């Protein structure tokens, strides 16, 4: 149990003491339906009916195990990030020569490239959220997860994509402004549908911790300090002047594809801008392996912001050692108040539709395990 003597307050807003990152393993019904749709054997409307049914089941399961903030599992997406990018005006779906290079595996090669000026007018994710909100009911929060503005910029300048940026935005400042504005506008659209819990998923900070990996994304000769400030600016501009009852959090990742990873490195090099100056309410931080470094950077978390410790791996079905997880939470509490900590998996269970290498039963056991530990520590 915890070594703390401080008074623990009950969490009534996101993030909660036991939490999730967002994505869930796709059930077989979803996989088959998407295959049938790709082959032209069912219509988009028929696919949507199956997705609706499986999302309702997923929401019910999340509520059954006691989650206070639920997602649609990203069941309608192929990727955690690209599907969202494709929904903006001025962005097209492309195929690059290579996918992303993970540890021992290469992803599919889909990408997002500019095809005109970037803006938000409408987006399919709004209808997706409307359905989730109805399925969730009034007793839990319906959380919307989207990739961060910084992540969009990173994709738009990746490899051959950068030629399109040069064509449509010879003045990069205009692109930066349009990215933040498009995000700000769509976040307000989610808010108007009732969203009060929005999460920005962001690999850029995790990748910046690994200079060797980031050189593959940003190219040689980039200035890492300039990138940090640019990513911080894009994200903060997108979420400024939002309604006070909208909780915006961020999840920082080092890659999560088919149980593999993309980068290594502790948070030390990005802690000051990310943890000190990004204007979110909480950070979901990957901490399931020593690739994430130690907890010292948590000293940089400013104000009363929270940290959700991703100490439980979503990449494997084996349960961690409970005593070890509790010991690590208490170790983190040396740098930030235990009252400002929570617990979750290190990432989603299926950042892409391939999913990680574990079973659905193991997935749910992981979340029950997290809840058990959280209740023991925080009551």
TrEMBL record:
<dbReference type="Pfam" id="PF01717">
    <property type="entry name" value="Meth_synt_2"/>
</dbReference>
<protein>
    <submittedName>
        <fullName>Methionine synthase II (Cobalamin-independent)</fullName>
    </submittedName>
</protein>
<dbReference type="InterPro" id="IPR002629">
    <property type="entry name" value="Met_Synth_C/arc"/>
</dbReference>
<dbReference type="GO" id="GO:0009086">
    <property type="term" value="P:methionine biosynthetic process"/>
</dbReference>
<feature type="domain" description="Cobalamin-independent methionine synthase MetE C-terminal/archaeal">
    <location>
        <begin position="21"/>
        <end position="79"/>
    </location>
</feature>
<feature type="domain" description="Cobalamin-independent methionine synthase MetE C-terminal/archaeal">
    <location>
        <begin position="278"/>
        <end position="354"/>
    </location>
</feature>
<dbReference type="InterPro" id="IPR038071">
    <property type="entry name" value="UROD/MetE-like_sf"/>
</dbReference>
<dbReference type="GO" id="GO:0003871">
    <property type="term" value="F:5-methyltetrahydropteroyltriglutamate-homocysteine S-methyltransferase activity"/>
</dbReference>
<dbReference type="GO" id="GO:0008270">
    <property type="term" value="F:zinc ion binding"/>
</dbReference>
């Amino acid at each position: 149990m915890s070594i703390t003597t401080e008074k623990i307050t009950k969490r009534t807003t996101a993030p909660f003491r036991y939490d999730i990152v967002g994505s869930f393993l796709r059930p077989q019904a979803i996989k088959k339906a998407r295959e049938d749709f790709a082959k032209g054997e069912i219509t988009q409307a028929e696919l949507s009916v199956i997705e609706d049914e499986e999302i309702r089941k997923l929401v019910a399961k999340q509520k059954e195990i006691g989650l206070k903030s639920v997602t649609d599992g990203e069941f309608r997406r192929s990727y955690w990030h690209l599907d969202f990018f494709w929904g903006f005006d001025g962005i097209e779906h492309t195929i690059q020569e290579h996918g992303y290079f993970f540890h021992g595996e290469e992803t599919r090669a889909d990408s997002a490239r500019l095809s005109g000026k970037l803006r938000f007018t409408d987006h399919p994710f709004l209808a997706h959220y409307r359905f989730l909100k109805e399925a969730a009911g009034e007793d839990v929060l319906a959380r919307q997860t989207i990739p961060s503005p910084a992540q969009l910029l990173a994709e738009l300048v990746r490899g051959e994509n950068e030629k399109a940026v040069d064509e449509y935005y010879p003045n990069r400042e205009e692109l930066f402004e349009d990215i933040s504005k498009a995000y700000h506008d769509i976040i307000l659209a989610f808010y108007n549908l009732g969203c009060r819990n929005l999460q920005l998923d962001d690999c850029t900070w995790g990748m910046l911790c690994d200079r060797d990996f980031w050189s593959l994304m940003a190219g040689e000769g980039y200035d890492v300090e300039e990138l940090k400030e640019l990513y911080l600016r894009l994200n903060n501009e997108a979420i400024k002047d939002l309604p006070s009852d909208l909780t915006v959090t961020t999840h920082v990742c080092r890659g999560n594809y088919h149980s593999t990873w993309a980068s290594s490195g502790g948070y030390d090099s990005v802690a000051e801008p990310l943890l000190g100056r990004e204007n979110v309410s909480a950070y979901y931080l990957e901490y399931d392996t020593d690739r994430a470094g130690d907890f010292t950077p948590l000293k940089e978390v400013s104000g009363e912001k929270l940290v959700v410790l991703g100490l439980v791996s979503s990449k494997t079905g084996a349960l961690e050692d409970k005593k070890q997880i509790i010991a690590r939470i208490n170790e983190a509490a040396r740098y930030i108040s235990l009252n400002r900590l929570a617990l979750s998996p290190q990432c989603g269970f299926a950042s892409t539709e391939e999913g990680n290498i574990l079973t659905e039963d193991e997935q749910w056991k992981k979340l029950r395990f997290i809840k058990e530990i959280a209740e023991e520590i925080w009551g």
